[in-house]
Amino acid sequence: MTAQQQINDLLKFIDNSPSPYHAVQNVKKKLEGFGFTDLDEKQKWALAAGGRYYVIRDGSSIIFFVAGVNPLENTGYKILGAHTDSPGLKIKPNPVNNSDDLLRLGVEVYGGPILATFTDRDLSLAGRISYKTSAGKIASQLVHFEQALLRLPNLAIHMNRKVNEDGLKLNKQNELPLMISTMVEKQLSSSYFCQLLEQQSGIKADKILSWELNVYDTQKGVLWGDQQQFYANSQLDNLASCHAGLQAMLNDQVLASGNTVLGAFFDHEEIGSESIKGADGSFLADIVQRIAFSMNVEKEDYQRALAKSFMISADMAHAYQPNFPSAYEPEHKVMVNKGPVIKVNANQRYSTESISEAMFIDWCEQVDVPYQKYSHRTDIPCGSTIGPMTSAKLGVRTVDIGNPMWAMHSIRESAGVEDHFYLIKVLSCFFADNNAF
Length: 437
Ligand code: ZN
Hints:
Layout: H1 3-15, H2 20-33, E1 37-39, E2 52-57, E3 61-66, H3 72-75, E4 77-83, E5 88-99, E6 102-110, E7 123-132, E8 138-144, H4 163-166, E9 178-182, H5 189-201, E10 208-217, E11 222-224, E12 230-233, H6 236-249, H7 252-255, E13 260-266, H8 283-294, H9 299-307, E14 310-314, E15 317-318, E16 341-343, H10 354-366, E17 372-374, H11 387-394, E18 397-402, E19 404-406, E20 413-416, H12 417-432
Parallel strand pairs: 1-2, 4-13, 4-14, 14-18, 15-19, 16-17
Antiparallel strand pairs: 2-3, 3-13, 5-6, 6-9, 7-8, 7-10, 11-12, 12-20, 16-18, 19-20
Helix pairs in contact: 1-6, 1-12, 6-12, 10-12
The structure holds zinc ion.
Residues 83, 237-238, 269, 315-316 line the site of zinc ion.
């Protein structure tokens, strides 16, 4: 695929993935088109060398892999990690607020979004609901309201005269509930929300028991710039890295390499990764070990395989924005469309060390992909990624990289078309590399 085709595919992927649950379904669909089959953690596994598989844990984290024909103890695992979640707003358990002739939905803040960017957008809802079936079982279903449904109107400047001097500050409890309707009859408000879900999902309101629903922006992704060299959408952090990793693996050369290649996309990165399906939980370690044991690799050979393994932790990076020069480390300005960024931090907020860094540079050079190095300003605290925790848990050498982007954690982020293409190229080179570490 050309850079243009990859970007169009990415924008479509994001438009169809308004929640991590939807993102995982779309990854799964793509994998099935390439002959990957479903593994259930509750069942016994019988893996075949050369087989293609995926495992989903709790709907919003997925690990997919090719069981290599090359002995695992010779090649190790080649792992690409990323995350499916993005910061934003989630609907509360008792969401309906019926006052002043208006219905509003209460929300909780998930992770660290730029809240001001959620105002005056055409918002809607997507996620999963759980319900009781007619057979008395608990089941869940994805739900996606496609039309604009919700809004957080700004206060007019006439009532907030200093907004341009002081910035838009929103009280998280009082000033985030989202408008949905003029008031309905008082007695209806307790069942109102489940009835709304029934209309969309077809599941009877009185059977709906619980939900995890994201507020998302209905505006579709676009290309922009005089040469259409940039793109914008929600959730670039980190669905762009998920898409790049997936496209990189679904490549003839990688699939024919005989390597054990693995993609791991986790939910809950934005809130610290400590959960049943997060990168700081057992998911990756469980699956990596199970692959080895299901293929009759002995314990010592499994440990040898880990020692020979390599992980690329892909998460977006902060591109230089020239309107705000003082926010950046002057010698580490990373530019959009100048290639993937290697993230380095002395305090191991990023897992990169000089050997993993050098190896990534080597893969870039092998396929003529430019690269950049990023260090955060020393006087501003640095963010982190899933890299340090997965590396620590597995004992696998890791590098933290990612494409440069503007406005990280805004509801509308943007980045460069070329960079996405570059990242796919270098990740394919990494997966297909037959030189064991
Ligand atoms: Zn991220």
